[in-house]
UniProtKB/TrEMBL annotation:
Protein name, entry field: 2-amino-3-carboxymuconate-6-semialdehyde decarboxylase
Domain Amidohydrolase-related as annotated: residue spans: 3-327
GO biological process, one term: secondary metabolic process
Alphabetized Pfam families for the sequence: Amidohydro_2
Subunit details: Monomer.
Top-level EC class as recorded in UniProt: lyase
Domain of life: Bacteria
Similarity annotation: Belongs to the metallo-dependent hydrolases superfamily. ACMSD family.
Organism: Sporosarcina globispora
């Protein structure tokens, strides 16, 4: 079974649903043709997309062609809108969560849903997480790598992680509003360099800030193979060793990094082997970033091309790990 853990979706009528939100900073979906649109932010094109990003029928057609059994649906990170007033961001979150839940309910054998929450106000975020998991039946929450420049170990977020652990809610952490963005206006460096660096900062913050030590049963998966975090762990361990006065942890950072899950979107079997050697196949989840340009085609290609994997390892990474991470019984998708 192939479960594509990392895919993004947005309602086709997104702009109509959000027209009452005032100001041009809100993301909008501007149709360009029957099968295409631009995501607009601040009156400028943020990203060109096709009907793959809103059409369940198109997705299911692609899934048949690319041999994917289940897609895990999550919002597009630009819609997190942590910058906005919490009550307005909560409206946007509810619109997307309702749409994802409806899409899953209409095609339960093909889709699993993740929700979004307005993390700029933790109490509002917890209420929406509660609704997502206990009313809508979504299987986890997607969050960004920072909240208005505050790293994920910010004290204001502790109660959110506490409730996620208590309710056994898996969290998918995806880069957004990347560090150094002002230095990356050309070459699309924000996507190729900024996002991996931003993800590393988020992971290091959760570790060094003591969040993973405080909440050892918290389930977290990082997009894009954890970005540059896996390759920085030896340096983080060295810092922990030589600066004992800064330590908040009983064990070195690499110990806590082994508790994370990582999607397989690392583009090269050499990189996947590095993840395997450091974290084990049990912590790697197949994800393609469908339907965007940087996605992996066919989903799971890097796993297929990695030599010397056992059948057990391959099956786990292609699908079983995703279902286990999301607390979904394997028989649901079989």
């Amino acid at each position: 079974m192939r479960v594509d853990f990392h895919t993004h979706i947005i309602p086709e009528n997104f702009t109509e649903l959000t027209k009452h939100l005032m100001g041009d900073k809100w993301p909008a979906l501007e149709r360009t043709c029957a099968c295409g649109a631009n995501i607009m932010v601040g009156g400028k094109v943020f990203r060109e997309v096709t009907d793959q990003v809103w059409s369940p029928e198109k997705r299911m057609s692609d899934m048949v062609r690319e041999d994917v059994d289940i897609q895990v649906l999550s919002p597009i990170p630009v819609t997190f809108s942590y910058w906005a007033p919490a009550e307005e961001a909560a409206i946007l979150a509810r619109i997307q969560n309702d749409f994802i839940a409806e899409t899953v309910n209409q095609n339960p054998a093909k889709f699993i849903g993740l929700g979004t929450v307005p993390l700029q106000d933790v109490q509002t975020a917890i209420r929406e997480m509660d609704r997502c998991i206990h009313e809508l039946g979504l299987r986890g929450i997607e969050i960004g790598t920072n909240v208005n420049g505050n790293n994920l170990d910010d004290p204001s977020l502790i109660e959110f992680f506490e409730m996620a652990e208590k309710w056994e809610v898996p969290l998918f952490i995806h880069p957004w509003e990347t560090l150094g963005k002002e230095r990356m206006p050309r070459h699309n460096l924000m996507y190729t360099v900024g996002m991996p660096s931003e993800t590393a900062l988020a992971g290091a913050s959760l570790i060094l800030g003591g969040v993973m030590e405080k909440f050892p049963n918290l389930k977290i998966c990082f997009a894009h193979g954890g970005g540059s975090l896996p390759y920085l762990l030896p340096r983080l361990d060295k810092g922990w060793e030589v600066w004992p006065h800064l330590r908040l942890l009983e064990k070195p950072p690499s110990y806590y990094a082994k508790k994370f899950y990582y999607d397989s979107l690392v583009n090269d079997p050499i990189n996947l082997n590095y993840l395997l050697q450091n974290f084990g196949h049990e912590q790697i989840i197949m994800g393609s970033d469908y339907p965007f340009l940087l996605r992996e085609i066919r989903p799971g290609k890097v796993i297929d091309e990695t030599l010397d994997l056992t059948a057990e390892q391959t099956e786990a990474m292609l699908g079983k790990n995703a279902l286990r991470f999301l607390n979904v019984p394997a028989k649901v998708g079989s």
